[in-house]
Prior knowledge:
The chain has about 100 residues and is mainly α. Helix content is about 50%, strand content about 0%.
Amino acid sequence: IDVQQMLPFSTPEQVRYDVAKRIYDLGRGGGYIVAPCHNIGADVSPQNIEALYAAAYEYGQYPIQLDHILSEADRRPPTQAEIAAQSTVEKQERRPRRSRQ
């Protein structure tokens, strides 16, 4: 789970969705371990950390019940229009990079 953008800048509901989506996409055959990609920074709220582990516990119990993780709309691949719209939103929401001095 991304610790640079997802955990520090998302709501607990968005974190839960991201965890559920990763379990749905990667946990089908077993062997997927839900974890942050490395250390969790001080800028991550305790609510988001709790949401990560609560969602992993709720959705990550084997055998995984895939039909109960995501809605039908979230299980289908995105359309080109949805990808373009999301790309535009992400560019607007990104933090500006630090300037190098």
